[in-house]
Design brief:
There is one protein chain. With about 325 residues, this protein is α/β, with parallel strands linked by helices. About 35% of the residues lie in helices and about 15% in strands. It is built from 13 helices and 9 strands. A 9-stranded mixed β-sheet has the order 1-2-4-3-5-6-7-8-9, sandwiched between helices. Helix 1 packs across helix 13.
Length: about 325
């Protein structure tokens, strides 16, 4: 290992239950259940190159009040690696989410869904699916976007000005098949620059690096090809659940422009939370604030957890006026 100490809050907690779930095409998905049996359910979907371990600090924040389900996206963590490129698609993401909800959320009950990056794209891709909608009370879309990802990347420095060159170089970075190898000072520095805020401490960077480096190279590249041509705008438009959006002001992979577009495209926007100085890995960088936003939506739209009021945490924004969604900035 790299020799950098990993703080306890980033160590994956021990689940109370582990599940093996088959998706529509037969791919086996790994899922974990944490927290309080019988409590309201929160389902967490991680992003590209990550795993259930990515949610560790958020799970710790939520597990005293909720039953928390986290699953590995196909090819990631302990889930099965698809045997061909044809098994990598936004449709597959939506079908995987549907399978997880069918297994972990009993019929007649609903959960709050929270998705980071590709996990948010998963929720948007599943927009309009009745089997997902009937088990969804509310959603939280975190550091994500519905499309035009390569066009909006800000990984390259501003000195690279030509738009065509920027797109070409960003696409090469996104779809690289270069093995990441062991975590090193150089890889940590590069990963921090591309995915995290400049003030992220060493423990956060180390946690991120260990998770990302564990993703198989072929899986990383095959999902990158999907993200390169991503377009889930149609699913976003069909997403009927009350939805809040979270983004870091220093996010280079899905900059705040995406968050604003998502809010504008939602039927029932419930606020935009801006996290100052935070990069793309917001659930690891600011787990307390991310968990608080999930809790805000859960306490408003799920049966109240013990000690919570049953009424919504804030008055819902008008479904017909996306601009009425509350925009908030977390205190650093």
């Amino acid at each position: 290992m790299s020799g950098v100490h990993l703080p306890e809050e980033y160590e994956p907690p021990v689940p109370v239950e582990e599940l093996s779930i088959r998706s529509a095409d037969g791919i086996r998905l790994h899922a974990e259940v944490h927290g309080q049996p019988g409590a309201p359910t929160v389902v967490l979907a991680h992003g590209w190159t990550c795993s259930t371990a990515f949610w560790a600090p958020v799970i710790r924040e939520l597990s005293d009040r909720y039953r928390v389900v986290a699953y590995d996206q196909r090819g990631h963590g302990h889930s099965e690696i698809p045997p061909s490129r044809a098994r990598y698609s936004t449709r597959a993401l939506a079908e995987d989410l549907s399978a997880v909800l069918a297994r972990t959320v009993p019929a007649g009950e609903r959960a709050v869904l929270a998705g980071h990056s590709m996990g948010g794209m998963t929720i948007m891709a599943a927009g309009g699916r009745p089997e997902v909608a009937e088990r969804t009370a509310a959603t939280v879309l975190i550091s994500t976007g519905p499309g035009e990802l390569v066009a909006e990347l800000t990984v390259l420095p501003p000195a690279v000005r030509p738009r065509g060159l920027r797109r070409f170089l960003h696409r090469q970075l996104l779809r690289s098949r270069m093995p990441l190898g062991p975590v090193s000072p150089v890889s940590r520095a590069a990963l921090k620059y591309a995915t995290m805020g400049p003030a992220s401490p060493a423990g956060q960077v180390e946690a991120t690096a260990r998770i990302v480096h564990a993703c198989p190279t072929a899986v990383r590249a095959n999902w990158a090809a999907v993200l390169d041509r991503l377009d889930v705008h149609a699913g976003l438009a069909r997403l009927t659940a009350p939805t809040s959006v979270v983004v870091g002001t220093e996010d280079r992979l899905t900059p705040p422009v995406h968050a604003h577009r998502i809010v504008a495209g939602l039927r029932d926007p419930q606020g935009l939370l801006l996290l100052p100085g935070v990069g793309h890995m917001s659930p690891l960088e600011r787990p307390a604030e991310v968990a608080a936003e999930i809790h805000r939506m859960a306490s408003g739209y799920l049966t109240a957890a013990p000690g919570d009021a049953a009424a919504p945490a804030s008055a819902p924004a008008s479904a017909s006026d996306p601009a009425s969604a509350d925009e908030r900035t977390a205190v650093a």
